[in-house]
Amino acid sequence: MVNYLKEHRFQYKQKYANSKNVAVAISFLGLIASSCSQQTAINATANSDSSSKTITTKTTDKSNVIRLGYQKGGIIPIARQRGELERKLATQNIKVEWSGPFDRCATLLSSLNGNRADIGGCGDIPSISGIAAGQPLCIGSVQRPSPDSLSSAILVRGDSPIQKPTDLVGKKVAVNQGGAGEYLLLKVLEKENISSYKVQRVYLSPNDAAPALYQGSVDAWAVWEPYISIAQLEHQARRITTKHPAPTYSIMVVRGDAAKENPVAVKAALTALSEDGEWLNQHTNAASDFLVKELKISDTVAKQVTKNRGPESYVFPNAEDIAKLQKTADWLLEQKIIPQRVDIATAVCPLETTAAR
């Protein structure tokens, strides 16, 4: 992601030894979104930055095709497993293709930008950053922030002397640059009245951040689910934060041309994804079972991930959502995380008016 942060940048380039713990971590930790809320790829060896594969059979008739890009652990791969979305769209003569899994929001957004997918789920921070960087993207639907969600946290090793956010002064914290992790760290520091200059941000992808934390190359890691539960239950990490001081939105991001050229199919897919989320909210055991299959994690970890993340409820953004996202975008500009102002109202996909024609 394009990121213009000027405060103490630190590029982490050390290669990690292939210890047993690292192998387990890399096997399980790829990337999820949200801001947010976030979406992840757990198998790092299978998912590189450029990884993208079509799951379903392709068709030459692109006018009635919608391509859903995904990270492991989000609503889109669960919808792929369940199969109801494809059945619903087939009744509308819309064919579905699946593209992924991608290892993080940056590579998913790149696939949208590169016309390899039409819709993908990400957090609001990387989504706004992508739009600010000039990527032709728009906001399709959103999942509103949950103040009580435990889906984001700053983690430390189980034997770390760090007990609370104020103990991070002078320490190294792994974050994903311009993403939900960096936003979480900055908001926690802001809440504690700690200058961001007093904490060293180490820019790492989740694939690298997990072993860096476990091996002691960094002191803490600002991250989201399912990484939190995997780190806690499989690697004895612990969290030093609970609720997010500034809960974020999750966003279904849409390729701009897809929204303009095929608004009916885009809107139908977004509606079907919302319905999948509502079904999962009523069947939490099924949601956990889907995560076990998708992420190759234990049932215990999957149940905690499902509980921490809370309901999956995507809606088309209203005026209040737009105003809140605008506030976030303006804050990102003030912090020099994005290079230019994003007008959220114009960044919302024109699905209602265009699709109705």
What does the model show?
The protein has 357 residues and is of the alpha/beta class. Helices cover 41% and strands 15% of the residues. It is built from 15 helices and 11 strands. It has helices spanning 20-28, 75-82, 84-90, 105-113, 124-132, 180-191, 206-215, 227-235, 256-261, 263-282, 284-295, 299-309, 319-334, 344-347, 351-356; strands at residues 65-71, 95-102, 119-123, 137-143, 152-156, 172-175, 200-203, 220-224, 238-239, 250-255, 314-315. The strands form 2 sheets. Strands 2-1-3-10-4-11 form a 6-stranded mixed beta sheet, with helices on both faces. Strands 7-6-8-5-9 form a 5-stranded mixed beta sheet. Strand 6 (172-175), helix 6 (180-191) and strand 7 (200-203) form a beta-alpha-beta unit. The longest helix is centred in the C-terminal third of the chain and has 20 residues, at 263-282. The radius of gyration is 19 Å and the shape is globular. The two termini are 35 Å apart. Mean pLDDT is 84; it is low at 1-60 and 353-357.
Order of helices and strands: HEHHEHEHEEEHEHEHEEHHHHEHHH
Beta strand count: 11
Number of helical segments with 4 or more residues: 15
Strand order of the largest sheet: 2-1-3-10-4-11
The fraction of residues in strands falls at 15-25%
Low-confidence stretches: 1-60, 353-357
The coarse silhouette is globular
Largest sheet: 6 strands, mixed
Describe how the helices and strands are arranged.
Layout: H1 20-28, E1 65-71, H2 75-82, H3 84-90, E2 95-102, H4 105-113, E3 119-123, H5 124-132, E4 137-143, E5 152-156, E6 172-175, H6 180-191, E7 200-203, H7 206-215, E8 220-224, H8 227-235, E9 238-239, E10 250-255, H9 256-261, H10 263-282, H11 284-295, H12 299-309, E11 314-315, H13 319-334, H14 344-347, H15 351-356
Parallel strand pairs: 1-2, 1-3, 6-7, 6-8
Antiparallel strand pairs: 3-10, 4-10, 4-11, 5-8, 5-9
Helix pairs in contact: 1-7, 2-11, 3-10, 5-13, 8-12, 11-12
